[in-house]
Amino acid sequence: MTELNISQASRESDSRDFHSRDITDPVLARIGNTSLLPYPTSPAEGNINVKAEFENPTGSMKDRIAFGMVTLLEKRGVISQGDLLVEASSGNTAGGLALVANRRDYDAVITAPIENSPQKLGYVEALGAELVACPDVSADDERYYRTEAKRIAEERNGVWLDQYTNQLNPEVHSRWTGPELTDQYPDLTHVIAPMGTGGTMSGIAKWVKEYDSSITTIGVDAIESNISTAFDGETDGEHSTDVEGLGKGEKLPTMWFEYIDDVRSVSDADSFRQARRAANEHGILIGGSSGAALFVAHEIATQDPDSEIAVLACDGGEQYFDTLFDDDWLADRGYEF
Ligand code: PMP
C-alpha cells in the first residue's frame, strides 16, 4: 500500500487553483461550476442562495474531491494510471471516485456500509468500480468499512485515499468550491454547509476567511452527530442520526475548526421537513443534510435582514425518494409532519 502521509497532502505544496474550464475530459468537465439558485425568502428576511452541488455528474460535491485528490496525487507522482484506488464511503464519494477512476483509467474499490442508499452505491458498479459491502459495525470491529478499505489497499498494493484524514479533501474545496462561490456571490456575508468529514465546510471556510475575514462560516450537524460538541471542546456523547452525510462523533483532521465560526445542530425532523419544503414549495430537490443547512440559513436570515447567505446543497433529493420523501419511511421512524 502507498502511504499517504500529511506532507504529500500538505496545504502549501501546490499553488494552482482548480477551475472547471481547465478540465479537458468532457465528462469530468461537468464537475463544478454549479449554479447558485436564489431561494425565496420574505422581504423581512435576508437573502438565501443555494449552491447546487447536486448538478455534479454523480450528484454531489464529492465529485470535486474525487477529481481533485486524483489530480493532485498524480501531479505529485504518488499515483499513475492503472493503479488501484481504494476508498471507504457511505455514499457520495463512492460515485465520484468511480467516475474519476473510470475516466482516468484507474481500478477502484469502494467499501461501504451495506445499509446506505442503494441509489448512491448504484453508481459504483455501473461505472465499473468494485463494491465491497460491509456490515454496519462500530469502528473497533475489523469488518468496519474504513478498516476494510485499509486492508484491501495493503493486500492489493493500492492507494487508500481516506477522505476522513486526507488534507487534500478540504484543500480541494478551498481551491475550487470556495473561489467559485465568491466569484458567483462577491457580497456574501454567511456561508453554511453540512459537515461529515468536514472537508466541504473547512475548505470553503479557509478560502472565504482569506477573501473577507468578516464573512461568517457556519457548519451544520445533527443534534446527535456531535461535531458541534467537538467544536465546543466537549467530550463525545451518543451519536445517531437518520440524515445521510452528516458526521458521527469525532473531531477529524479534515475539520479545520480554526476557519469555522460556529457549528449548529439541527434535529433530523427539521432537516427532513426543510428538504421536503424546498422540493414541494420551491421545486428545489435537495437531500436531508442540505435541508439541515437550509434550516440554519433560515434562522440567520430571520435574525438578520441584511444577510447574504450561501447554503451548500451537497446532494439532490432523488437519492432519497424512498427515505425522507416517503411518508411511510418517516412514519416508521416516528417522525410526525
Ligand atoms: N451531505 C452529504 C449528502 C454528504 O454525502 C456529505 C459527505 N459525507 C456531507 C453532507 C458532508 O460533507 P463533508 O464530508 O465534506 O463534510
TrEMBL record:
Cofactor(s) the record lists: pyridoxal 5'-phosphate
InterPro entries documented for this protein: Cys_Synth/Cystath_Beta-Synth (IPR050214), P-phosphate_BS (IPR001216), TrpB-like_PALP (IPR001926), TrpB-like_PALP_sf (IPR036052)
Biased composition (Basic and acidic residues): 11-21
Single GO BP term: cysteine biosynthetic process from serine
Gene3D superfamilies named among the record's database cross-references: 3.40.50.1100
Pfam family name, one: PALP
Region (Disordered), start-end ranges: 1-21
Polar residues: compositionally biased ranges: 1-10
Residue span, Tryptophan synthase beta chain-like PALP domain: 30-315
Protein name, UniProt field: Cysteine synthase family protein
